[in-house]
């Protein structure tokens, strides 16, 4: 199943949004179910005329008789999530880069308190009406323009330079306690800042960052030993342990069944 993942055309949005895609049930190759794996994006998924059920590791989408818009927000998951569609559906999903969504939404702490996935209810009141209009635009280029114009209209000026530095330190494998010392704050204060702005711990962020780096660098040619060394794992056993934790299968089976060349690393079922 080929899925077109669009990179923002607007240069400003490129700083905050990794990309987005449109899904529907048209055609013989329409998606009915897939498994998605942990990442560090903030993912906003909007469904048209649908009933959406969020379980611990499963999302179910089915048609609704109501003329409605339902949006969900996934920002912290450490296990695979199964997504199932029943009947007709239309969906738009936006991948915000780490910290990216903070520049558009002010009430993230409330949503982060849900621990994993929650209904996406931003403070701007026109969200459902405007997303509904975007769904009803027939031509994709015009739909893309409207989607980007809408999110650009919600962009706020915020100073998150300190948090960006914290994430860079985390990605460079500095010990968490050393990151706190480097910035002259307690580890508790550091953890509180990260939870407030990211919705997860630095340990979780680093684990998923390494995992995603391995996927991005895998081209079917490198051994697990090479991938371990290149991505700051202690050894191959460490890589395998993290892979099993985040995917529930070993790396060789994962790479055999998942097309890592796609922007969306999914296992179709």
From TrEMBL:
Which segments constitute the HTH araC/xylS-type domain? 160-257
InterPro entries given in the database record: HTH_AraC
Q: Which domain of life is it from?
A: Bacteria
Record Pfam families: HTH_18
Q: Where are the transmembrane segments?
A: none
Provide the protein name: AraC family transcriptional regulator
UniProt organism field? Pedobacter riviphilus
